[in-house]
Amino acid sequence: MANNVPLLDNEEPLDFGEEDLPKGRLKHPVVTTFHLLFRTAALVVYEFCGIFSSSFIGPFIFIVVLLSLDFWTVKNITGRLMVGLRWWNYIDDEGQSHWVFEAKKGGLQGRVTKMEVRIFWVALVAFPVLWSIILLIAVVFSRFQWAIIVVIALTLTGSNLYGYVRCKLGKSDSISQSFKNMAAGLVQRQMVSNVTSMFTRAPPTATPSSTV
To answer: In total, how many domains does the chain have?
Structure first.
C-alpha cells in the first residue's frame, strides 16, 4: 500500500543556470527537444506503422521502447530542468512504497523561460488527451490488439501528468484537498449571497382589493 509523503521543498540547488536570455529563447533547447521527441515519435509510429508493416509485434516493441524512453526522460530530466519540479517513488526498510513530490524552492525567474514552461505543460497534457481519443477510436473499431499499446501509452504519459500536477498543486495541499477547499468556498459564497439577498430584497407590496 502506497503512502503519500507531503510535498517537500528542495533544499539542494538544482542544476539551473542563472543568466538571462532574450524573450522567446529556450534556455534548454536540447532538453526541450527530447521532451517532445520520444512521445511524438511513439504517436507517429503508431499512426503510420501499418503503411510499412503488417506485423504487430515489431511496432509494438518499438512503440513501447519509445514510450519508456519518454517516461524516463520526462520524469527524471525535463521536469527538473524545464519547470523545477520532481517526483519519484521509493521503498522504505519496512517494504512500504512512498511517493515524493517536490517543487523548486523559491522563484524560477531567470532559471527557466516562459516558453519552456508552456511547452512542458502543453505537451504533458496534450499527449494523454490524444491517446485517450485514439483509445476511443480503437475500441469503436474493435482494434483491441492495438488498444493494448494505447493503454500502455496512457499509463506512462498519464503517470507523469499526475506526478507533475501533484508537484504543482500539491505544495500546500493535496489535489483532493484543493478541490474540497474550492468546493467549500463556492458553497460558502453561495450561502452568503443567498442570506444577503434575503435581507436586501424589497418586501412585496400589497395590492388594494377592488370593491364592487
So the answer is: 1
- The domain of 107 spans 29-173
For 22-32, write each residue's pLDDT tens digit. 455 788 899 99
Does 203 reside within a domain? no
Strands 85-91 and 97-104: antiparallel
Identify whether the C-beta of residue 38 lies closer than 8 Å to the C-beta of residue 66.
Answer: yes
In the chain, alpha helices (H): 29-52, 57-73, 79-82, 114-140, 144-169, 175-200
CB 79 within 8 A of CB 14: no
pLDDT in tens, 139-191: 999 889 999 999 999 999 999 999 999 998 864 444 444 444 544 555 555 55
In a domain, 160, yes or no: yes
